[in-house]
């Protein structure tokens, strides 16, 4: 028997708010943050009321590649929040009423009455989500057209110091010092007890190199920030994408 597909890794959502689609029935505000996960469930927290909910991994689908205006995490089933738990949502079957003064149709001999077909009523949340997806697709198309237009105009931006381009995700602190020299200062920051960040400051270059890892002994190069704390270089992630969005959500320390 083939094993079920492995759910996507969601560690890169620690600092990025997202919405579920379809939205969870019974929850008014559809904006969440990923907190942590076990082998069978993930824990998310509602951004508005701070309520934490455990959701089975088998309900989690794909994560959208476009996060503007909002990142979408797909659900394989329509879910409902009931008595502190998330369970599959069951829609009720609506039977069409008999007209006033009318009589139920009598089946002819040898015929069976037609089965009652359930009518699905689109909720207001579904309509809002469809509009949101439409807006996301429109923005993505506009950004693509803008990128193509800029590339045709051959606009080139050149940084004064691009030494950091020689760094890769395999470089640790020792490799960074060999390539860039000793930093003027370094600082540490812990995020949710799960990730450790080290900032190596190079004021003469107007750059800050960021290292990231599960503990202080295993941190490796994650990207470079400019003097305004904006990412100017990022590296690929194993789960797909780059560290650019992670760096943009990182506060100066």
Summarize the helices and strands and which ones pair or pack:
Blueprint: E1 18-21, E2 32-37, E3 41-46, E4 52-56, E5 60-63, E6 71-75, E7 79-82, E8 85-88, H1 124-152, H2 173-180, E9 185-191, E10 195-202, E11 207-213, E12 220-226, E13 231-234, H3 244-248
Parallel strand pairs: 1-6
Antiparallel strand pairs: 2-3, 3-4, 5-6, 7-8, 9-10, 10-11, 11-12, 12-13
Overview of this protein structure:
Among the domains are: 1-90, no CATH class; 163-237, no CATH class. The model is unreliable at 2-7 and 154-159 (pLDDT under 50). The longest helix has 29 residues, at 124-152. The protein has helices at 124-152, 173-180, 244-248; strands spanning 18-21, 32-37, 41-46, 52-56, 60-63, 71-75, 79-82, 85-88, 185-191, 195-202, 207-213, 220-226, 231-234. It contains 3 helices and 13 strands; from the N terminus they run E-E-E-E-E-E-E-E-H-H-E-E-E-E-E-H. By secondary structure, it is α+β, with helices and mostly antiparallel strands.
Which key features would you list for this structure?
single chain, 253 residues, alpha+beta, five-stranded antiparallel beta sheet, 3 helices, 13 strands, 17% helix, 28% strand, elongated
Summarize the entry for a quick read.
It is built from 3 helices and 13 strands; from the N terminus they run E-E-E-E-E-E-E-E-H-H-E-E-E-E-E-H. It is an alpha+beta fold.
Mean pLDDT: 80
Q: Main beta sheet, described?
A: 5 strands, antiparallel
Radius of gyration: 26 Å
Tally of contiguous helical segments: 3
